[in-house]
Amino acid sequence: MNWEYIASIVNSTLRMTTPILLAALGSAICSKVGVFNIALEAQMLIATFFSIVVNYFTRNVYLSVLAGIFSGALIGYIVAVLQVKYRAADMVIGTSMNLLVSGATSFLLYLIFGLRGKLVDSSLVSLPKINLPLIRDIPFLGRMLENLTIIDYLAYVIAILMFIYLYKTVSGFRTLSVGINKEASESLGTKALRIQMSVVTLSGALCGLGGVVLSMGQVTMFTENMTSGRGFIAMAAASLGVSHPLLTIVSSLFFGLCQSIGSALQNVIKSQLTMTLPYIATILALMLSGWRSLKSKNGRSI
Amino acid sequence: MLLEMKHITKEYGTLRANDDVDLSLREGEILAVVGENGAGKSTLMKILYGLEKPTEGDIYINGELQKFRSPHDAMAKKIGMVQQHFMLLQPCTVAENIVYGHEPKKSGIFFDRKRAAAITKELCEKYGLSIDPSLIVSNCPVGLQQRVEILKVLYQDASIIIFDEPSAVLTPQEVGELLKTIKKLASMGKSIIIITHKLSEVMEVADRVMVMRQGKRIKEMAKSETSIEELSFLMVGRHIVERKIPPQETTGTVLDVQDLVLSGSDKKNILDHFSIHVDAGEIVGIAGVSGNGQSELIECITGLTQITSGDILICGKTIVGKTVGERRTAGCACIPEDRYLWGCAKQATLTETSIMAHQREPAISRYGILNTKGIQKFTSGLLERYDVRSGGLSQKTGELSGGNLQKMIVAREIELNSNLLIAAEPTRGVDIGAMEFIHSRLLDKRAKGDAVLLISSELTEIMTLSDRIYVIYDGKVAGEFRKQDATEESLGILMMGGESNEPKAV
Amino acid sequence: MSQKLSNRRITSGLHSAWNTMRQPLIATILGLLVGAVVILACGKNPLSVYAEMFDKSFLKSYYLFSTLTRATPIILCAMATAIAWRAGYINIGVEGQMIIGAFAATVSALFIPGSPILIAIISFIIGMVAGALYALLPAVLTWKFRVSMVICTLMLDYVASYITSYFVTYPLKDVSGDGLALQTAQLDPGMWLPRLTPKNTLHFGFIIAILVVVFMVFITKKTVFGYESKMSGFNPSFARYGGTKQVKVMMITMALSGAIASLAGTVEIFGLKYRYADSMFTSTSYAWTGLMAALIANLNPVGMFFVSIFLAGLQIGGSAIQRSLGIPLEISTIIQCCITLFVSVKLVFNFIKKRKAKSTAAEKGGEKA
Question: Which of C245, C358, C369 is opposite residue B399, by nearest beta carbon?
């Protein structure tokens, strides 16, 4: 095996992982407070669009990133209001939000730019790439970490911070208590509804950041439905990582690896077939985690 | 006067849950509020604890007018409540649960779990209640979980403590412990309100008793001036006639559970070599603290769970490996313990709920095609004969009151005309009228010569209705009694896992 | 006397019809209002835009027939979604089942020799079996491995789409034309579904869709299976306790769902396009529109039929105004999603009302409950 090749696979795995990891963290924290959020796809997609729109008009990276985060958080907030506050069915809200954002982004793309399908422009700015001075020159490691963006590193920092918050702080303990027993937490004065709503909004912001990586990381463009199921893959990653921030890193890396292998194999196998790899891997991973939990329960009932 | 509630009225729509109720409490006093289910005791306490706002009336503490918008406000005035349904974080530790809401902190934001454990220890010593702070709550028995609830209230430094039906889930021995704790707290200066419908507890612990009926305060008196007889008359509003159950010969075994084993996740057996039998024409009670394998026993018999080993026979034929449907046709009907989980679908109409398990009978369907007229006739007949008060056949099941829904489920299962009826908690949370009605139907079933397996956490219910009683503890049969040999004490000891001193009765 | 009675029966019937239709109607009005705001923001007059949309979807006969043609697969997708959802199985993979089923039917029709009509019938059946199998796959995985059906069915959408894309790009690509289009060869005209009117596109598939609606009404209202699957959807524990075989219900509903989904794609090909083309079902999002229709009509078969036609009209009108007024056709997607959201929120208002009523009733019945 060629070391150079392995390093490049690792490099692309890291890049592919970031959006999934960020969205998976969003999914994980939602399920920690007892909300089943299916609108991750919408939260990501809106961010890919608005970051590029702001990018197009301002040529400013920071504003673009902020636009992505805020638009994701906005969708998260709408989901929070409908699903948490008014207790509408999660599936209905999730699927309609996903479709709504998919329609709305295409609508705006045509309205603002008169374009169909995608928006590419050579003057769009992408996220700055970081090449750490010393590490850059170490052969294997340098190639592995080549051209990563700050968000690629930030994602892991966020995961660790989330872990510390949830399991080490008082406020995190109360957040977890909402998911464990909402009624009990409320009986002792915790504002459960407000916590759930903030968490869902936060998941929107996280997915938004993930969306920004998609549209301004490896490529700098917007394509219709460019998230292509990543929100759902992220849900699978979160459930595989039993909604624990650190385990979710591991499961997200697995899905990143699958995508990276998928695109690496395109030279050998036709791309339409390799593109199915991440989706099939998701199903297999869900089977594995289901089989694991079934075994531990020793097959009671059914 | 420490606490006064004056002219409290609470209306839900047209229903008056509380009607001009007064209540007062002195420092260091134990006040018992007694009444049947639906008398308005819980509503009154919810108002005091800030969970509900009164339609009219005021609350005064030390003569000061209070406006409680949430339990938080009530807690700030040192009112604490030990809820009947525990408000605990099951996967967390005892210490975490106790300090919840006022957690000790490190550097401002971090949760100091070591200090939480230390605080718990101190609290335990101060009030003489022992518990290991590092235990996970879900692993604690019910009595211990209640202790956590009490410590939680004490940690919030409550001076008025409300106990809502505290003995409902406990064994007689645990109840004894609890009553001792309550007395001790009162002697330490805490003022206590205990809500209950068990009069023996009232006589043991209370200083004063207030009786409620249909939302009104009927009478209030010192304990020394009253008696159980008077209280029960005041509570129900009429004298209860002691039920006379004629003895009856049994004919042949209907249900025969032989050496049943159901293994759990951690190699421990949930049901451990469990053998019982129920004969035709008798009611057999299973007494025990809930969570000792009763639910699993029902699931094994009805086929919702597959057994690990052993045999279950109905009328001499094994039903092991059969599906739920096949077991039902073999003659097994079941009033489930949780009427909302197993007994109905809230969104379904009354017709839909009532034909469950009847759906393949010729009157209901033929060749898989439903007979709409037949279904309507069936359901309206059921509602009429079992006195289910409803808003019509297309009403949603979830809109029925608990008692009426329970009557409908009882009706549906009895109308199956099966040889065996499993009745699990058949009267949980229903009013006294519905309770008497359901008991009569179970006795009718017995009189018809069918077998009834009664599973209940209400010991009185078991002792009144059953011809024979098994005690279940930790998945095993801990003892078997004939009706005349069973006493509350002897059953209670076995329910706690103790050894019976008396010789085995059967 | 009897006159009075029948009058009362009619009013009560009207009353209950109003009750079921109230929420979707209010939601539709609200959805159209949101659409109006969006149109205003585009600098157009909402009233004239809506008038144009309505004119070019329902009023002119040519457009009305286009609307019904477009509604055909949507109705079938709505039925496919509903039959699984009402039993509690969240199948959002109707798109994938539609693709696989229709593709299988097309390939069979292209390669099996024989008399066209017979082959057409065989192809329909093969397509339905393929769709059913593709829906049974997630069902089996849910049963044996407890995978999340939501994620699994959605993942299979993408798998179906990419795999068929591979086939029409390489082995089965039509080489007769200019070679640019990614599509299969055309079907033998002898297999085409007949047109219902000579001048318009409306084809026999619409009749098939109506038959499926009738079939659904029958299943849901009149059969033990329909009853048991409905109860499973409401409360699976209750259904199981009552002797319903859950696995059987899941397998049958999912198989039916996949078969109907396949039918949706197959009639579109045999009635309108006469070949399988890459992304023909994803770009039109029939399956998702059908899902929206099912949600708006609260899974009621007759309701779904009319809502599907309404949504199809919205889309036909939407593409008309894109051409004439420059408003992107996704306006119809936005309106239809808003309607769904409003329906779900309305349901919630109702739910809160009922919960209040119930807590009162529960209070009456017993405090402990």
Answer: C358
Task: Look at B111 and A168 and tell me if their CB atoms are within 8 Å.
Answer: yes
Chain A touching partners, 3 or more CB pairs below 8 A: B, C
**Residue B210, SS3?**
strand
Measured between alpha carbons, how far is C181 from C176 in angstroms, rounded to an integer? 10
Q: Which residues of C touch B368 (CB under 8 A)?
A: 223-225
CB contact under 8 A, C358 and B334: no
The third-level CATH classification (topology) of the domain covering B253-345+417-495 is Rossmann fold (3.40.50)
Nearest Cα residue in chain B from A178: B89
Q: List all chains that touch chain B, counting a touch as 3 or more CB pairs closer than 8 Å.
A: A, C
Q: What angle do CA C366, B289, B490 make, to 5 degrees?
A: 115
Structural domains of chain A, count: 1
Q: Which of B171, B168, B165, B127 is nearest to B148 (CA)?
A: B127
Condensed to tens digits (0 to 9), the pLDDT of residues C155-208 reads: 999 999 999 999 999 888 888 877 778 999 999 999 999 999 888 899 999 999
H or E stretch including B261? strand B253-263
> Residue B224 to residues B199, B207, B437, C58: CA-CA distances in angstroms?
14, 8, 34, 84
CA atoms within a 13 Å half-sphere pointing along the CA-CB vector of B317: 10
Domain with A222 in it: what CATH number?
1.10.3470
Q: Give the minimum alpha-carbon distance from C3 to chain B in angstroms, rounded to a whole number.
A: 22
The minimum CA-CA distance between A135 and chain C, rounded to whole Å, is 38
The answer to whether residue A302 sits within a structural domain is no
**Touching check for B96 and chain A: CB below 8 Å?**
yes
How crowded is residue C109: how many other Cβ atoms within 10 Å of its Cβ? 26
Domain boundaries, chain B: 3-236, 253-345+417-495
Q: Give the H or E element holding residue A301.
A: none
Question: Rounded to an integer, what distance in angstroms lies between the CA atom of residue C182 and that of residue B74?
Answer: 71
* Cα torsion through A46, A49, A52, A55, rounded to 10: -50
Domains along the sequence of chain C with CATH: 51-340 (1.10.3470)
At the top level of CATH, the class of B3-236 is alpha beta
Map chain C to HEC letters.
CHHHHHHHHHHHHHHHHHHHHHHHHHHHHHHHHHHHHHHHHCCCCHHHHHHHHHHHHHHCHHHHHHHHHHHHHHHHHHHHHHHHHCCCCCCCCHHHHHHHHHHHHHHHHHHCCCCHHHHHHHHHHHHHHHHHHHHHHHHHHHHHHCCCHHHHHHHHHHHHHHHHHHHHHCCCCCCCCCCCCCECCCCCHHHCCCECCCCCCCECHHHHHHHHHHHHHHHHHHEHHHHHHHHHHHCHHHHHHCCCCHHHHHHHHHHHHHHHHHHHHHHHHHHHHCCCECCCCCCCCHHHHHHHHHHHCCCCHHHHHHHHHHHHHHHHHHHHHHHHHCCCCCHHHHHHHHHHHHHHHHHHHHHHHHHHHHHHHHHHHCCCC
Question: Between chains, do C141 and A282 touch, taking CB under 8 Å as contact?
Answer: no
C366/B429 touch (CB, cutoff 8 Å), yes or no: yes
Cβ distance of A187 and B87 shorter than 8 Å: yes
| Range(s) of the domain holding residue A278 | 3-297
ipTM: 0.89
Dihedral of CA atoms B96, B99, B102, B105 in degrees, nearest 10, equals: -60
CA–CA separation, B226 and B223 (whole Å):
6
For residue B374, count other CB atoms closer than 10 A to its CB. Answer: 16
Residue labelled with tokens 């401002």: B108
Tens of pLDDT along C90-149?
A: 999 999 999 999 999 999 999 999 999 999 999 999 999 999 999 999 999 999 999 999
Kindly report the pTM of this predicted structure.
0.88
